[in-house]
Amino acid sequence: xxxxxxxxxxxxxxxxxxxxxxxxxxxxxxxxxxxxxxxxxxxxxxxxxxxxxxxxxxxxxxxxxxxxxxxxxxxxxxxxxxxxxxxxxxxxxxxxxxxxxxxxxxxxxxxxxxxxxxxxxxxxxxxxxxxxxxxxxxxxxxxxxxxxxxxxxxxxxxxxxxxxxxxxxxxxxxxxxxxxxxxxxxxxxxxxxxxxxxxxxxxxxxxxxxxxxxxxxxxxxxxxxxxxxxxxxxxxxxxxxxxxxxxxxxxxxxxxxxxxxxxxxxxxxxxxxxxxxxxxxxxxxxxxxxx
Amino acid sequence: xxxxxxxxxxxxxxxxxxxxxxxxxxxxxxxxxxxxxxxxxxxxxxxxxxxxxxxxxxxxxxxxxxxxxxxxxxxxxxxxxxxxxxxxxxxxxxxxxxxxxxxxxxxxxxxxxxxxxxxxxxxxxxxxxxxxxxxxxxxxxxxxxxxxxxxxxxxxxxxxxxxxxxxxxxxxxxxxxxxxxxxxxxxxxxxxxxxxxxxxxxxxxxxxxxxxxxxxxxxxxxxxxxxxxxxxxxxxxxxxxxxxxxxxxxxxxxxxxxxxxxxxxxxxxxxxxxxxxxxxxxxxxxxxxxx
Lengths: 291, 291
Known about the structure:
- Two copies of one chain form a homodimer.
- With 291 residues, chain A is of the alpha+beta class.
- Chain A has nine helices and four strands.
- The radius of gyration of chain A is 20 Å and the shape is globular.
């Protein structure tokens, strides 16, 4: 952006040079770019994902369900490398026409069922297994308000703040200010709520916590965008308390490893097909990748 | 934004001068700014809202429920003037700690129940009345995937494209390009889906249509951000067909009028307390406001 006054054209056109770090994967059109079927493993639940915050929501939920003893939650997790354009393969687009991870296929019924959008997948699994969503009507309502809150709020953190603070080709003050302000407001919303409650929707750990933790929990733990100091995340004391409690759950540690293609090698379980994979994973096929 | 290189400070601080058109209502902290109770009318359902796309979703749903004969959906709709800071009143913050419209209070049970986030309110009402959410498991799942899609996608349209194209203090090419591209991709996602289906989740008109129509339907009808030509909205033929069909529904026309504080006076029903208000509304208290 420059001091040269910019007048938008009458009709926007696609300049394939623009877009910053993710220019190669951002497109103004939808649909598949190539034919590629999705692999299908042995379990009814087939997850196609990557360990970004939206992906981690679902792998944490599946690991929590397994930890509770829900054997039907066994799953195969296949990696979708968004930098390579895997999300534009015909099989993935059929599972999620929006070409974003995560996408879930449930083969347990007569016809495979697609579920897309991380919030919808969490709700689908919570209802399928009767877990992590309160049965009490008032508590369930509060849980769902917070689940939808996360879905509508995190784009300001990820697509707004994260993009302009960490990924855009240059640092520009206006969008960084705009989205830092909104991100801090959201953290304060959570902090005030968590001053009154153990978990975000009440006394119980629910899918709302899993959804919010994947973004805001990991943010205050300093894991997103190297922005902990900039956003003064230590000042949100109640969010810190809550984030650390969730981070200490074994199922959360496992969920964070699945479909992970960055960070230290011992934190990566690129594909997950069995509960034993966490112990026996071989790392000889893994290549280090930048976080 | 200027050619002067910008280096973000180590710790972000609140510059109350920044923020563009909505600087006065954007804050980095949450919570109430003043004490103000919410009014409560005669019906069990009390809506606190404004006729932005997120508000229209809910008033359309309530009017559709009433059109179906669900008398229990009678409601009072109170206006929340976000430009005046009504969303920071203590009563509103208790109903929605996120200080965004719409918020719903349901007084039909022993204890008033708050519901916030427009997607959560749509799901709450759909389940309460057993309407506009398919009972069939596969169709319900598809509907909820699209409902969550809307919640996670529209921030790129509203908080991204709309802000930088229409409201930011200057026009900057990079953010306009970034968010125009994403908005057009989202329109293409819908256009491809609506080539195969009457409504977004299948043969039936559901809460997913209401949610998506309020943003993307109104966008392709040229009602948002004066951006119809810029985004070439006429080219999305299937979205156009679907948007016009929904726009022709009487309940949608009524829903658009409720809590409307802009546009021509005859389109405004600032508060709604009875079905007869659409016919008998007095306009003598109304002041024109810019759209």
